[in-house]
Specification:
Elements (H helix, E strand, L loop, with lengths): L12 H5 L6 E9 L2 E6 L2 E5 L3 H5 L9 E5 L2 E5 L5 E5 L7 E6 L3 E7 L6 H14 L2 E7 L8 H8 L7 E3 L8 H5 L7 E6 L5 H9 L23 E5 L5 E4 L13 H7 L1 H7 L16 H8 L4 H46 L1
Parallel strand pairs: 8-9, 8-11, 9-10, 11-13
Antiparallel strand pairs: 1-2, 1-4, 1-12, 2-3, 4-5, 6-7, 12-13
The protein binds guanosine-5'-triphosphate (GTP), magnesium ion (MG) and zinc ion.
The site of zinc ion has 8 residues, from α9.
Length: 344
C-alpha cells in the first residue's frame, strides 16, 4: 500500500505543532464499527481506540486528524470544524459525522419528497459546525421544470448557495466539483438514495462507491453506503461520502446557528416592541406582524419555534446528564475519602 502525502490530505503546520513527538500523524479515512482506516505517510492502517479512550467517551469521526502509536489512536488533534448530531435513538450522545471539513453539502433530491423543513434542520447543524453550508438539489432531470421547487428551497436557504445538479445529464456537476479546492475537504450529507455516491463516482471518474442499482424512486430510504468514507479526488481536494441519514437530531448547538438559519425571523424580532418578546401574543410584535402581512411564511415561524424547543430540550437533557455525572464522581470521591479515613 503506497503512502499518502499528508499535505494533499490537508495537513498543515498548526496540526504539526499539536502532535506530540513520537506519534505518527494520520487522517481517519473510514469509520467502521469499532475500527478506523487511517491514512499515514506509510500507507493506510487499520486502527482502534484503546479501551481507556473509548471509556472516556472520545469520539473519532471521518476526517479527524489523529496521532497513532502501536497501531492505536492515542489522540485526536484539535478540529477545525465538526458536524455533530445527537446519535439516533433516545440517548443524548454526540456523534461526529465528519471532522475538519471546509464545505458541507446538504443534499436533497428534487421531487415530491423535497422538504424545506428538513433543509432548515440541516442548516442549523451545519452553521454550528464551522464548515460552510451549501445546498445541493439532485436529479434535476426528473422534472420538466425544477425551478419552482428550487425557489422554495432558496426561500429557506438565506445566504447559502443552492446548486442544482443531475448526474444523468451532467448539469451542475462540474461547477459543484469546483467548490472543492486542492487541500480542502467537503462532505455530502442527506437522506438515503438522494444520489450522494453517484456524484462522488462521477467526480472520481470511476465506480468506487456502490450506488443503488435500480432507478426506482420509491426505493429511497434503504442505505447503499454503509460507512463514512474519505476519498481523494483527481486534481486535488477531498470528499467524505456518508450513509443516508434517517434523522438529523440536533446536538447542543449555539443559538447563533439558529439565528443564522432564521436570519429573516431574527431581523423582524429586532423590531419587536419588547426586547424579551416571545412572538406569541405581545402587542407590537414585528414577527407576528410579518406573518400577518405574509412577509414571513407561517410554517417558517412554526419551524423556528419547533427547533428552538428542541434545542432547549437537548440543553436540558444535557444538563441532567452532566449533573448525574457530577453526582457519580462526587459519590466516588466521598467513598474513596471514607475508605482512606478507615485505613488511617
Ligand atoms: N434520475 C436521476 N437518478 C439519479 C441521479 N443521481 C443518482 N440517481 C439514482 O439514485 C439512486 C441512488 O443513488 P445513490 O448515489 O446510491 O444514493 P446515495 O445518496 O449515495 O444513497 P445512500 O448511500 O443509501 O445514502 C441510484 O439509482 C442512482 O442511479 C440523478 O441525477 N438523476
Ligand atoms: Mg451512497
Ligand atoms: Zn415579537
Amino acid at each position: 500500500m503506497p503512502g499518502f502525502d499528508l499535505r494533499e490530505l490537508g495537513w498543515n503546520d498548526e496540526l504539526a505543532e499539536n502532535l506530540e513527538p513520537g506519534l505518527v500523524a494520520g487522517r481517519v479515512a473510514a469509520v467502521h464499527r469499532g475500527a478506523f482506516d487511517v491514512w499515514t505517510e506509510a500507507g493506510a492502517v487499520r486502527s482502534r481506540l484503546p479501551g481507556r479512550l473509548v471509556h472516556e467517551g472520545l469520539e473519532v469521526g471521518a476526517g479527524d486528524w489523529v496521532g497513532l502509536s502501536d497501531g492505536l489512536i492515542r489522540v485526536v488533534l484539535p478540529r477545525r470544524s465538526a458536524i455533530v448530531r445527537n446519535a439516533a435513538g433516545l440517548t443524548t450522545t454526540a456523534q461526529t459525522l465528519a471532522a475538519n471539513v471546509d464545505v458541507a453539502f446538504a443534499v436533497s433530491s428534487l421531487g415530491p419528497d423535497l422538504e424545506p423543513r428538513r433543509i432548515e434542520r440541516y442548516l442549523v447543524t451545519l452553521w454550528e459546525s464551522g464548515a460552510s453550508p451549501e445546498i445541493v438539489l439532485t436529479k434535476a432531470d426528473r422534472l420538466d421544470d425544477p425551478w419552482p421547487l428550487v425557489a422554495g428551497v432558496e426561500a429557506v436557504a438565506l445566504g447559502v448557495p443552492v446548486h442544482v445538479v443531475s448526474a444523468v445529464t451532467g448539469q451542475g456537476c462540474d461547477a459543484l466539483r469546483a467548490r472543492i479546492g486542492a487541500g480542502t475537504t467537503a462532505v455530502l450529507l442527506g437522506s438515503s438514495g438522494v444520489g450522494k455516491s453517484t456524484l462522488v463516482n462521477r467526480w472520481l471518474g470511476e465506480e468506487t462507491m456502490a450506488t443503488k442499482e435500480t432507478r426506482e424512486d420509491d426505493d429511497e430510504g434503504r442505505h447503499t453506503t454503509t460507512h463514512r468514507q474519505l476519498l481523494v479526488l483527481p486534481g486535488g481536494g477531498l470528499v467524505i461520502d456518508t450513509p443516508g441519514l434517517r434523522e438529523l437530531q440536533l446536538w447542543d448547538v449555539d443559538s447563533a446557528a439558529l439565528d443564522a438559519t432564521f436570519a429573516d425571523v431574527e431581523e423582524l424580532a429586532a423590531e419587536c416592541r419588547f426586547a424579551d418578546c416571545t412572538h406569541t401574543h405581545e402587542p407590537g410584535c414585528a414577527v407576528l406582524a410579518g406573518v400577518e402581512t405574509g412577509e414571513l411564511p407561517h410554517e417558517r415561524l412554526q419551524s423556528w419555534r419547533k427547533l428552538q424547543r428542541e434545542l432547549r430540550a437537548i440543553a436540558m437533557r444535557h444538563d441532567v446528564r452532566l449533573r448525574k455525572e457530577e453526582g457519580r464522581k462526587w459519590r466516588l470521591r466521598t467513598r474513596e475519602a471514607r475508605a482512606r479515613a478507615r485505613h488511617r
